[in-house]
Amino acid sequence: MADMDRTGTDKGQETKGIEQQEQQGIDLEARRQQRRETRRNQTYKAFLGNLAVIGSMNEEEAERAAVSVLCVLEQRLFGEEAAHLEAQLPGKLQDLLVRCERHLGKPASKFGKDGFIQMVSEDLGVEAIEAERQIRAVFSAVREQVSEGEIEDVIGQLPADLRELWQRTI
After folding, report:
1. How many CA atoms lie within 13 A of 89 on its CB side?
2. What is the pTM of this model?
3. What are phi and psi of 10, to 5 degrees?
């Protein structure tokens, strides 16, 4: 015979109901997590797709260019500006930048356009002219992703020759 509580409710049924609610809660959280991850992937893919179109590159080249250019840029930014910029980038791109060994724990340093282009050129294994083209493409794609106020904050920390890379279209 079923075990009843004082209200006449079957304790076995009550336990099953609680277990079902817990399972539904787990399922709901799993679905939410899956939606978040799907959104992260879609945002990242859209950014890379846009960069690939802007820079006339494939998705793999676009990813390499984005990571290289943004990593070098972060080496140039002082204070919390790199973190503020990163916060507005797609989450998966943020993850790649966090793993960038070149800027972890290093203080920002001053360099201009030529130094910037040289670092990207060496990192990507391309000529300076190609590096500059890819830098402009990344900056253009980032400009479409990040608020204008944040772009102005970033540009405000750069010397005039380096600002010019942000302001000219490809």
Report:
1. 25
2. 0.75
3. -70, 120
Res. 170 pLDDT band, cuts 50 70 90: very low
CATH of the domain at 64: 1.10.490.110
Residues 6+ apart with CB under 8 A from 133: 55, 170
C-alpha 39/C-alpha 100 separation (Å) is 23
Which tens digits make up the pLDDT trace of 111-169? Answer: 899 999 999 999 999 999 999 999 999 999 999 888 999 999 999 999 999 999 987 55
Which of 141 and 22 is assigned the larger pLDDT?
141
* Pair 121, 128: CB distance under 8 Å: yes
Residues 6+ apart with CB under 8 A from 134: 55, 57, 65, 68, 69, 120, 124, 126
Higher pLDDT, 3 or 166: 166
Query: Is 18 within a domain?
Result: yes
Tell me the residue range of the domain where 100 lies: 11-167
- Evaluate whether residue 92 is within a structural domain: yes
Task: Read off the amino acid at residue 130.
Answer: E
SS3 per-residue string spanning 89-158: CCHHHHHHHHCCCCCCCCCCCCCCHHHHHHHHHHHHCCCHHHHHHHHHHHHHHHHHHCCHHHHHHHHHCC
- The rounded mean pLDDT for the chain is 81
